[in-house]
Amino acid sequence: MIKILIGSVLLLLMAGCSDDATDATGKNLDKTENITQAKAVTAKEAPRTIERWYKKEQVVIGQTVFSQNCAICHGDKAQGVIHPWNRKLESGLYPPPPLNGIAHAWHHPLKGLLYTIQNGGKAIGGQMPGFKDKLTLEEQASAIAYFQDFWSDKIYQAWLNRGGLK
Ligand code: HEC
User: How confident is the model over 10-24, as a mean pLDDT?
Assistant: First the structure.
């Protein structure tokens, strides 16, 4: 039951995501988003004051999990491989987005991120494979810790404000 609920929430979120991406290909990209993206690029250098949900050890484990399972599509530092990431490919599908804070991953709560990693994007017309039989829950969470550690405090705070941990 909870899974179904999370599923529908994610579907809604992903639908919102695609809409945004379509907008972003045109002139509608709003100013705040531009500013947020510019800030995200310097994420690693920015001082960290907000407490994160994950521990440093998870980031370390996550780096291995990510490099072995995710980097081929999302980039070794979650920076994305295909740019622009928000424009459809010839196949009609969107490329794997960056997960380092410059794209939309921060629009999704932790449960939603986990759902995508477990079930992939196929159910929603995407191409990402699911990892529920390949990675333990700890490994999945560590992969999230790894890419969220690239998020600046500003992006992380925006994610919290959107209910990231609810
Ligand atoms: C074969 C390529 C591929 C691999 C491997 C892959 N992904 Fe993805 N991922 C995608 C694509 C493409 C999308 C966009 C949705 C879709 O089309 O399925 C996506 C979407 C996501 C999203 C949602 C991002 C957003 O902004 O909405 C997350 C989170 C994610 N992937 C995490 C991971 C993690 C963690 C791994 C490794 C455990 C991984 N992915 C492995 C291709 C991949």
Answer: 39
